[in-house]
Q: What sequence folds into this?
């Protein structure tokens, strides 16, 4: 059977995921550049593989196409697999890096950000409140985007003068329409900017993630964290800590504006905002497909499926989080009262479970109720069918979320 060729622009992520799911628990797909991978949309199987030591994220050790030189700089997704950080580490190397980074994302540090998240949210709402009645505003650009980008840049310690250029690189990292040359140029520019950040924080340390990682590296005489690992880790933190939360806020806003009964219930306190957040993560996983993992050895899967040693595996969270075997026949419906709302894999599972998951949930828990409380008459300024997806098969959000904030 021919592989399903993934649309790099993500024009119909859920429809495409459903077609992949119809092929079985694993199905062969073709990534941009004609690169094959096994897409896993069965939630139980994906959960198992994410925690399986026979599955690696290190292409240099375990992806035969990479080892054999078939994956070159001409591949547009190279920046996703060729970095040196937790994202691509395996085994003891991953445990070393995660142990070094974890203190920067401790529960205490995340909770300490709540007042600042509230301040950022209120300042954005004040700005939105000045909008003229009848004038549409884009909530992705004016709210869903700036909340997490301000939080993560402050947490990381990005100086104000470096922010705009860095934000542009973050956007490019997830752009599925980029050519290989554009993707590589974007990666190199982001690497340069993060190197500037590291140099600045060495001279001006503060209570931020970058300063913590620099202190860890320098105190250990470079023996535990290389300079490239430091820069690539910060790149991971900024990219992952921003885009996923943008999409979470974006999708939650759209879901509530298109489901008035659920909106009324959560505003009235009949549903918890945490339930809305979890169901949004399940219903529209912020990351639809995450490149890549690799079979360390041959993996036999029930039903006669086999992933050969050295083959690539694509964690397809959008499909897995709508697995009807877990979430029922109405899995494609938004229902915050669903019993399985929190049984999703939006933040991954196992050793590579997202280190910033609690921070993302906290941002949504603060920002969403404040938005809907401030603008109780808010409604979409276009039909739901006219909302267009971002150009990516990885990132799952909308290009714009136009709304009217006030009553006519």
A:
């Amino acid at each position: 059977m021919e592989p399903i060729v993934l649309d790099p622009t993500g024009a119909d992520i859920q429809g495409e995921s459903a077609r992949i799911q119809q092929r079985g628990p694993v199905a062969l797909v073709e990534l941009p550049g004609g690169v094959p991978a096994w897409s896993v949309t069965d939630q139980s199987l994906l959960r198992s593989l994410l925690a399986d030591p026979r599955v690696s994220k290190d292409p240099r050790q375990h992806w035969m196409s990479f080892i054999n030189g078939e994956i070159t700089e001409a591949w547009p997704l190279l920046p996703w697999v060729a970095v040196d950080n937790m994202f691509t580490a395996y085994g003891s190397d991953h445990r070393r890096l995660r142990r070094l980074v974890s203190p920067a994302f401790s529960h205490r540090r995340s909770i300490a950000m709540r007042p600042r998240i509230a301040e950022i949210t209120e300042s954005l709402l004040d700005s939105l409140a000045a909008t003229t009645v009848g004038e549409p505003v884009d909530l992705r650009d004016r709210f869903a985007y700036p909340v997490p980008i301000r939080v993560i840049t402050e947490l990381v310690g990005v100086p104000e003068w470096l922010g705009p250029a860095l934000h542009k690189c973050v956007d490019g990292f997830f752009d599925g329409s980029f050519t290989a040359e554009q993707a590589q140029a974007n990666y190199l520019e982001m690497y340069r900017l993060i190197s500037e950040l590291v140099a600045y924080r060495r001279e001006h340390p503060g209570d931020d993630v970058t300063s913590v990682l620099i202190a860890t590296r320098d105190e250990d005489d470079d023996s535990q964290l290389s300079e490239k690992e430091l820069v690539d880790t910060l790149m991971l933190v900024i990219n992952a800590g921003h885009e996923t939360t943008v999409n979470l806020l974006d999708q939650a806003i759209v879901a509530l504006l298109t489901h008035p009964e659920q909106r009324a219930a959560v505003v009235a306190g009949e549903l918890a905002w945490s339930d809305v957040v979890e169901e949004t993560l399940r219903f529209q996983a912020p990351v639809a497909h995450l490149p890549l993992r690799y079979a360390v050895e041959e993996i036999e899967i029930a039903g006669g499926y086999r992933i050969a040693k050295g083959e690539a595996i694509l964690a397809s969270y959008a499909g897995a989080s709508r697995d009807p075997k877990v979430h029922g026949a109405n899995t494609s419906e938004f229902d915050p009262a669903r019993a399985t709302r929190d049984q999703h894999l939006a933040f991954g599972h196992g050793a590579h479970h997202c280190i910033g998951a609690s921070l993302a949930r906290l941002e949504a828990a603060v920002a969403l109720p404040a938005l809907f409380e401030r603008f109780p008459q808010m409604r979409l300024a276009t039909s739901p069918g006219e909302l267009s997806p971002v150009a990516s098969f990885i990132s799952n959000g909308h290009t714009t979320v136009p709304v009217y904030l006030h009553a006519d």
